[in-house]
Amino acid sequence: CQGADIIKNDGIYSKYFTSFKGNGRYNLKVRVQGKDKTVRLGRRQSQALYVPGYIENGEIKMNAARPEVSDDEIQAKLGSFNRVASGGSFVVENVPSGGTTDVFPPCKIIDLEAQYEEDKIHLSWTAPGNDFDVGQADRYIMKMSESLLDLRNTFENATSVNTSSLVPNPAGTKESFQFKSENVTRENGTIIYFAIRAIDNASLTSEMSNIAQAALFLPPKESSPDSAPNDDVINKGISVLTIVLIVAGSIIAVSIAVSITVCI
């Protein structure tokens, strides 16, 4: 979800702090602990167009092959370490005396994915929290439409997907949900668009998620060997049989005529 840390595995880790207990000064410290593990480094891919070769004076000249990156180059052993950094201090004022009021909705889901699996549609995303990316949301609202613009502009009016059996997991957990695609046009190439919102226990609603799409591709039907022949096959068979009978009758007639002539 789109919390404080928007991009995964980029080496920058951020977090919202919403647990204010009352007025006063707060000190912030960040502690990072690493164990003896191997991590995979994210490397920025070059956006330049690779040209394998070119023509010069009518001859083909090949460029050097694109260098391949091995796993050894993008992996690093962390070892064991423990680091503490100070985030300074800040003052919180005007906190309500009766306790804090929930003013933080769940964060926006930005990694919704959808795909057809046989006769069902499978959806997956990262769970948001109760307050941004902290805690656990209360429920989801999921919508679907065959029109991208209708879903984006009028989310509430789109067709609802029954998510009553779906209980949100804690923030950061991978969610998975599938349902049978009823009331959907089942034609080859049909595209269905999906979007989702999360609601917390104070009825605060997140922004609409990214729009995911699922395309239906129906495999071609195979002809059955036991199926009845069509009219063309029947007509073709009749035509061949007619020719065979005419040829056989002609041979018999010639044989009779020869026999009579010999006898006379």
TL;DR?
By secondary structure, this protein is α+β, with helices and mostly antiparallel strands. It has 2 helices and 11 strands; from the N terminus they run E-E-E-E-E-E-E-H-E-E-E-E-H. The strands form 4 sheets. Strands 8-7-10-11 form a 4-stranded antiparallel β-sheet. A 3-stranded antiparallel β-sheet has the order 5-6-9, with no helix packed on it.
Structure, described:
It is elongated, with a radius of gyration of 35 Å. It has a four-stranded antiparallel β-sheet. It has a three-stranded antiparallel β-sheet with strand order 5-6-9, with no helix packed on it. A two-stranded antiparallel ribbon has the order 1-4. It is built from two helices and eleven strands, in the order E-E-E-E-E-E-E-H-E-E-E-E-H. The longest helix has 33 residues, at 231-263. It starts with 23 loop residues before the first strand and ends with a helix. It has helices at residues 148-153, 231-263; strands at 24-40, 53-56, 59-62, 75-92, 113-117, 120-126, 139-145, 159-161, 174-180, 191-199, 212-215.
